[in-house]
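Suppose you are handed a protein chain with no further information: no name, no annotation, nothing but its sequence. What can you learn? This example shows the usual starting point.
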Amino acid sequence: MKRLLAVTIVLCLLASGSFAQDFDVNSRHVRHYVRPTLPEIAKRMNLKGTVKLEIDIASNGKVTAVRPVGGHPVLVEAATEAVRGWQFDTAKETTTGPVTVVFQ
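A reasonable first move is to predict its three-dimensional structure. Written in structure tokens, the prediction is:
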């Protein structure tokens, strides 16, 4: 079932034009995914690229902190906003890990 969910997420992301990689942070799977939206100014500038973030996930699965590591500032804001809405599987403790969001 988890594999089917992961495949479904990937297919939806590919169809949307933006794709998130490394969203299985420390073996915690995404239960609810908010798709990043390319900002209007980025569309007008034909801006595409990769945003790297480091996130903290609480034991209840909620994203508690998002820290930009790299990427264009216009895209960083959109990626950060989306990732804050993600919900991961629960765990015994808080975990930290990388997330890469690619805007195409």
